[in-house]
Amino acid sequence: MPWLSRQFSTRVIALIPVAIAINIVLGYTVQTVLKLPIYLDSIGTILVGVLAGPIAGAVTGAASNLIWQYAPGIGGGTIGPFAVVAAVIGILAGLWGYLGVYRSRPATGSRLWLSVVVGVAIVVLLASRIYNNPAYTDPNIGGYPDWVFTAAILITVVASLAVAAFILVRQDTAGAWVAAAGALTGIVAAILSAPIAAYVFGGVTGSGTDLIVAALRQGGADVFNASLGQGLFSDPIDKTITSFVVFIILASLSDRVVARFPLGERIVNPAPAPDA
Amino acid sequence: MPDYVQRPPTEPYRSLNPTTKLAIALTEALVAFVVRGWTGPLVVLAVVLATGLRAGVWRAFLPFLLATLPLIASILLVNTFLYPGATDLIARIGPLAPTWTGLVFATQAALRVIAFAMSVALLGLTTRPDHLIADLERRGMGRRAGFVLGATLRTVPRIGERAREITDAQRARGLDTEGSPWRRARGLVPLAAPLVFGALSEVEEVTMALEARAFSAPARRTPLRSFPDAGWQRALRWTLLALSLLAIAGSVSGALAFLP
Hints:
The complex is a heterodimer. By secondary structure, chain A is an all-alpha fold. In chain A, about 70% of the residues lie in helices and about 0% in strands. Chain B folds into two domains: about 20-125 and about 230-255, no CATH class; about 135-210, no CATH class. Chain B contains ten helices and no strands. Chain B is flat.
C-alpha cells in the first residue's frame, strides 16, 4: 500500500528511535525522578504521528512502551501493558496531523480574540464533561472528597488562562486547536487506560499519579473508578501540555526540515508566491 | 572481548536461540499476569529463579529486584490500607484500617510484578540485544524494524547521558532542581529543549547515512552471523505459544478457577 509505505520513509525510520528515546528519557525523568503527577511520555509519539502519519505514530507509541518495559537498566515497572493506549495516541496524532491542527496560523485583532474565546470555551466544555462524569458524582459508585471538585475548577481556570495567554502572546490562533486536540487525546487516553490500570495493576502504577488514586480510593471508589477518576484528572492535562510542547517544537524547527517529512506540508505555511 | 573471539555459551539456557529465550520470557510474563492470583506468579517465579540459578545470574537479579521496590511498596500500602468494601480488619491503628482482603490482593499484585520483572531481567541478562535483533531480522522481521529496535536501544542510554550533562550544565548556570514542584516543573523547559532539539538535529544526518548504505534498497541482505536453532527449539516455541493461548482461554472462560 503506497499510503502505508509513504509513512515509513527512511527519514521517518531515522526519526522513530529518537522519538522513542525522547519518550522514555523524559517520561522516566518526570515520573520517576521528579515524581510529578503527569506522564509526559508521549511527546515523541505525537511528534511522529503529526509528521509522518497515524500508523507511524502508533508504532512509535507501542514500541516506546514495550521497549521501556524490557529495556535493560531502566526497564521494569508497569509501562508495558499501556502500549495499546500509546498506539491510539499515535493514531490520533496522525489524524491531527492530517487535519493540519499544528500549523501556525498568525492572526491579529478580532480573529485572535475569537480564537481565545473558542479555546477557552473548549477547555471549559471538556472540563465540565469531566466534572459531571458519573465516575465523580454517582453516589452508588462512591462519594469523592470535595477537594477533587475544587481542584478541577482551579485547573480549568489555570488552563484557560494559559491557553488564552499562549494565543495572545504568540499572536497565533492555532493555540485553540492545539489545546482542543490535546484535551481530546487526553480524555481518550484516560478512558482506555483506566481498565488496564485497574485490572492489571490494581490501580497502582508506581508513578506520582498513585497519590491521586489513593485519595480517590479513600473516598470509597472502587479500583476501576478510582483509576478512571485519576486518569481523567492527569491525562487531559498531560496530553494538552504535550500538545503545546509538540506545537512549539514544530514551530521552532526550520520549514526545510519539517517539509521533508510525509505530512510536513500540512504543518508548514506555504511561502507566498514570488512576484513573477 | 570481541564478539568473534568469544566462545558460544554452553550452559543449557544461555545456549538457546535468542528467539527461543524471547518466547520463554513472553510466555512467563503472560502466565504471571493471567493465571489466577497465586498459581501464575509463584510458578513463574520458581521457573525464573531456577533458570537463573542454573545460568549463573542469581546475583545480578538483585538490582532488578531493588528497582521494583518503590512500586511494590506503593502497591502494598495502597491496597492493604485502602481496599474498599473489605471488612476483615487486621487491626485498627487510629484512623488506619488494614484488611486481610487488601493484604492478600496486594501480595498477589506484588508477586505478579516481581515475577514479571524477574523474567525480564533473566532475558536481559542472558541475551545480547543485538543478537536477538539479528536473529529476528533473519526470520523476516525486516530491516527497518531491526534498525528501529537496535537504534532505540543504543539511543536511549545516549540521550539519558546527554540529559545528565545538560542538567549539570544548567545547574552550573543557576537552574533549581530541588525546590518545590512548581520550581522543578519550571526547570523542565531548560532541560528538555536542548535535549529534544539536539536529538532531532541528528535525524537528518542519520537519514543521509542510511540512504548512503542502501537502506531502502529492496534486495535481501545476507546476515553475517546466524545462531544455532534446532528442531526441538522450534517445537518448544510452538508449544509455548499454544500454552499462552490456552492460559488466556482458560483464564477468560473460568476453566482455571480450581487453582488458588
